[in-house]
Amino acid sequence: MRDRYNRDINYLRVSVTDRCNLRCRYCMPKAGLSLIGHDDILRYEEMIRIVRIAVRLGVGKVRITGGEPLVRRGLAEFIAGLRKIEGLHDIGLTTNGILLEEMAPALYAAGLRRINVSLDSLDPEKYRHMTRGGDLEAVIRGIRTARECGFDPIKINVVAMKGFNDSELFDFAALTLERPYQIRFIELMPLGQAGPKNDGNFLSNDVIRQRIAERYALEPVNDGKNPEAGPAQVYRAAGGRGEIGFISPVTHHFCETCNRLRLTADGCLRACLLRDDEVDLKRPLRDGCSDEDLEALIRGAIAKKPPRHELSCGQAQLKKCVRQRDMSAIGG
Question: Buried b vs exposed e over 78-87: b needs ≥16 C-beta within 10 Å?
C-alpha cells in the first residue's frame, strides 16, 4: 500500500475505546470528555474485519490504543482474534498501566508480547496531580508484572513538559542503566486539551537530549528514519541495559517516513494524527458493505494522506495547528 508520496503504509493503530480511568491534565478536563455512546463504538468483530482487510492490503503491524484499552471488556479475546489473522506479524498495545498488574498474564496468554506504558512522572505526588488521582505504585507493579510475564520490549512513554517533569529527566534515564526498558521522551503536541491550555509547557527533545548527554554518554542505536523501527531516535547510555528514545513530531518531523493509519473507536479512519480529515468506515460496515467496498475506502483514506503535518516549534504555529479531536478520541 503505497501512498502518493511512495510511503509504504503498513501500520494500523486501532483505538478500542475513548474511555480512560485517568484524567491527565494535558489530555482532558477534570470531568472527562463527552464519551461516544456504546452503540457508536465499533464492535470487536467489526474491528477484526477492518484489520483483516487492511492486512490483505499490506498492513503487517497493529497497535491497540484508547483512551485506555484495558478498561474495555474482552480485550484479551480480541487480541487472540487478531493473532489468527494471517499476515499480521506484530501486535502491540499502549496503556497507562493502572490495570496492567491484573491483566498482564491474560494479555500475554492471548499472544501479546509488545507493550508501551505511559508514565510522565516517577514522583507519586506529581503523578497523582497530573493524572488527577492516579496511583503510581499500581503502574510500577504493572510494569514489573509485565516483565515477569515475559513482555519484550517494554517501552515507557514520557510526555516531557516544562515546569512539570523536566526535573526528572535524569531519573528516567537512570532506569535504563539496570533495566532493559526503552524510555521514550515524546514532545507535547497541540491536540484538543493539550493545545491552548498547555501553551508554554512545550519542551523540545533537543533540550532534553542535551541535558541527559551532560551526565550520560549516549551511543546512537537508530536514527528514527526507519519506519519499521518507528520514529524514535534511540540511544543507549554507555553500559546501560536499556535504551533512551526521543520522538520529536514538533521539532523534527518524520512525516517523510510515516507509515501509519489510525482507526478511531467510533469507526473513522485517519491518515494523519495532526490533520482532521477522516473516512467513516462504521456506516458502510453496518449498512452491509462488501470487503471490496471497505478496501476501496481504506485506499481512499491513504490517497488523502498529506505529505506532512503543519506543526513547527514556534508558539504561534503551535496555536494555529491545534487539532479538534483529543488524543483519547483519536487513539494516539
Answer: bbbbbeebee
